[in-house]
Amino acid sequence: MSSNPVRVASLGMGWWSDVLADAAGRTPDIEIVKCFTRSEDKRNAFAEKYNCQAVTSYGEILADDSIQGIINTTPNPVHLETTRAAAEAGKHVFLDKPIANTISDAKAITQIVKDCGTILSVGYQRRRESHFQWIRDRIAEGKFGKLVQAEANISRDREGKFDLTSWRYTAAGMPGGVMLQIGVHYVDVLETILGQVQSVSGMTSQLVLPGDNPDVAGLLMKHDSGAVSTLSAGYASASEYYLMNIYGKEMTAYYDLHNGLRTLKRHSDEVVPVPCEKNDAIAEELEEFAACIREEAKPTVDGQRATESLAVILAGITSAKEGRTVDVAEILA
Fold it and tell me: How far apart are CA 16 and CA 278, in angstroms?
C-alpha cells in the first residue's frame, strides 16, 4: 500500500455522502480534499465536518490535477453527465448505486469511462459483508452441493423520515421506489451467490408512505443455474430488518440481522451458529477504489456488472406494470 492516500473530491452532499466520508476517514488509503454541491450551505457544512475545501463549481474540481477521483453521490438522473465530465477530465469515479435509472444511460456511462481510460467502481457494499463472503467461500468448497433456492428480505421503516421533495422518493428520480433504492442491494448479493438472474416476476404496492412510489415490492427470480430466489423489499415495515436464506442440496445457510449466520446440514437437525466478525464493508469498497486508481486492483462492480444488476430491477418494474414474467435479456437489449 502506498504511504500517500489517493486524493478525491466528493460530489453531491446528502446523507450517503456523509456515510462514505465517514468511511473514508476510517482508512488511510483515501483522502477527501474538496467537495461540491449546488447548495452553498450543504457544501460548507460538509467541508467543515470533513476538513476539506468547499468549491463553488464542479469545474474547479475537474480542473485540479491533484485530484485523482470523484466520489459521486449525485441524483441518479445526472449520473451520466457528472461521470462523463469526470472521465473526460481524467478523473476516476466511485459512483453510488444504481449506476443509472435507465439501461441506455448505464451503457453510455460504461462506454465513456472505457473510452477515456478511467475507472468506474459502483458502490454495492452489501456483497462484501462477512457473512455473505463466508457463504460464497463454502459454496466454492462444495459444502452446499447444488444450490436450489434462496429467500431474502431487506426492509426499513421510513414513515415520517423523508422529505417528499427529495429525488430519492419520486418516480422520476428513483423509478420502482424501494425496489431500486434498497432492493437492488440484495439482488446483487443473490446474484453473487446463485449466479445471474435470467427472468423476473415482480409485484409492488404503496401502503404507508405518501408520494408516487411503491413502498413494498416483491421479486420472484429464476437464475441461469435454474435456482429460484425471492426478494421482499420494504419501506413500510415496523423496523429495519435483513434476511438471507440460501438453500443447497447438502447445506442451508440462514442469516438475519438479529441472529447472525447459522447453518443446517443434510441429515442433521442441529442448527450451527457461524461466528462472523463484522467487517467494514463501506471502507473496504473505498480501499478497493483507491487500489484500482493505483493499478493494484480491478473494480469488483464495474459498469457492465452494475448495468446487469440494474436490468434485473427494471425487469421487475416492467413485470409489476405489465403483469408478466420478464426476461432480463429483454431489458438489456
Answer: 20
Which of 1-10, 131-140, 311-320 has the least mean pLDDT? 1-10
Q: What domain range includes position 36?
A: 6-125+283-300
Whether the per-residue pLDDT at 166 is higher than 80: the answer is no
Integer Cα distance of 84 and 91 in angstroms: 10
Q: What is the pLDDT of residues 87-135, one digit of tens each?
A: 999 999 999 999 999 999 999 999 999 999 999 999 999 999 999 999 9
289 and 270 in a single domain? The answer is: no
Residues 103 and 149 in one domain: no
Residues 292 and 319 occupy one common structural domain: no
Q: For residue 11, list its beta bridge partners.
A: 36, 72
Tell the residue number behind the cell numbers 490535477, with chain if given: 65
| Residues 113 and 229 both lie in one domain | no
Q: Write the pLDDT tens digit of every residue in 36-72.
A: 999 999 999 999 999 999 999 999 999 999 999 999 9
- The residue written with cell numbers 468448497 in the block is 141
d(CA 47, CA 39): 12
Average pLDDT, the chain: 95
Query: Do the domain assignments include residue 1?
Result: no
Same domain for 113 and 224, yes or no, is no
Identify whether 239 is part of a domain. yes
What's the CATH number where 45 sits? 3.40.50.720
What CATH number does residue 186 fall under? 3.30.360.10
Whether 12 is in a domain gets the answer yes
Strands, E, within 37-82: which ranges?
A: 53-54, 69-72
Total domain count, the chain: 2
What is the pLDDT, as a whole number, of residue 162? Answer: 67
- DSSP symbols for 56-123: S-HHHHHT-TT--EEEE---GGGHHHHHHHHHHTT-EEEEESSS-SSHHHHHHHHHHHHHHT--EEEE
Is there a contact between 2 and 294 (Cβ–Cβ < 8 Å)? Answer: yes
- Are 257 and 241 in contact by the 8 Å Cβ rule? The answer is yes
pTM attached to this predicted model: 0.95
**Integer Cα distance of 77 and 140 in angstroms:** 38
